[in-house]
Amino acid sequence: GAGVSQSPSNKVTEKGKDVELRCDPISGHTALYWYRQRLGQGLEFLIYFQGNSAPDKSGLPSDRFSAERTGESVSTLTIQRTQQEDSAVYLCASSFRWGQLNTEAFFGQGTRLTVV
Amino acid sequence: AQSVAQPEDQVNVAEGNPLTVKCTYSVSGNPYLFWYVQYPNRGLQFLLKYITGDNLVKGSYGFEAEFNKSQTSFHLKKPSALVSDSALYFCAVRDERQNFVFGPGTRLSVLP
């Protein structure tokens, strides 16, 4: 597609359940980022993938959070044993590797996660 | 480590007046700076970027930003604000690991 696609757009889950959030980056973008945004707040960095390099996981808040990316394509963010404080919008972005044109990040519309 | 500060949580301006949203940064090496806007219930949209060259950068929707190396600032500006400019604005820097570091955001309200 033309932009970054995230699914689902909304997810309501019960406390303690696992959830998977999906991100389809723009074709050709080697870098992929996940952020969390709580209501009315700024962006909280979670994880960053760059090509085949080891991902930067320094922003993951706990071991309940994990993410995978296959090559330079789709990424999945998994939250295990969800808690109410996990409720937020999860934003995915992608960009070209530094040194290429259009090095800004392009964002998806986000997945709104509500844990009840 | 790279960091971005947006000293104002909220900026209010009357429609038709000029607006400024402030951003200061801390980087090692050359700064690569970006502004994004977020409308309610939407993802972030890219407005403009500074990579190198002219200190005044022009972007989307009539916005521009002025890079000031000595003051380590990258303030977002618009000569005449519109009510539709009301949104959340984020400044960001791309660091040496090619990650994006975002400021906390500034909420702009343009009053009719």
- Within CATH, the superfamily of chain A carries the name Immunoglobulins
In the CATH hierarchy, the architecture of chain A is: Sandwich
Beta-strand proportion of chain A: 35-45%
Biggest interface, chains and residues, is: A-B, 24 and 22 residues
Largest sheet of chain A: 6 strands, mixed
Biggest sheet character of chain B: 6 strands, mixed
Q: How large is the count of helical segments of chain B?
A: 0
Low-confidence stretches of chain B: none
Radius of gyration of chain A: 14 Å
Helix amount of chain B: under 10%
Q: Give the total of beta strands of chain A.
A: 10
Defining key terms:
heterodimer; A: 116 residues; mainly beta; 6-stranded mixed beta sheet; globular; B: 112 residues; 4-stranded antiparallel beta sheet; 0% helix
Structural overview:
- The complex is a heterodimer of chains A (116) and B (112).
- Chain A is 0% helix and 45% strand.
- Chain A has no helices and ten strands.
- In chain A, strands 2, 4, 5, 8, 9 and 10 form a six-stranded mixed beta sheet that branches. A four-stranded antiparallel beta sheet of chain A has the order 1-3-7-6, with no helix packed on it.
- The radius of gyration of chain A is 14 Å and the shape is globular.
- With 112 residues, chain B is mostly beta strands.
- Helix content of chain B is 0%, strand content 52%.
- Chain B is built from no helices and twelve strands.
- In chain B, the strands form three sheets. In chain B, strands 2, 5, 6, 10, 11 and 12 form a six-stranded mixed beta sheet that branches. A four-stranded antiparallel beta sheet of chain B has the order 3-9-8-7, with no helix packed on it.
- Chain B is globular, with a radius of gyration of 13 Å.
- The relative contact order of chain B is 0.33.
- The mean pLDDT of chain B is 93.
- Chain A binds chain B through residues 4, 31, 33, 35, 41-43, 45, 48, 50, 56, 91, 93, 95, 97-98, 103-110, and chain B through 32, 34, 36, 42-46, 49, 51, 90, 92, 94, 97-105.
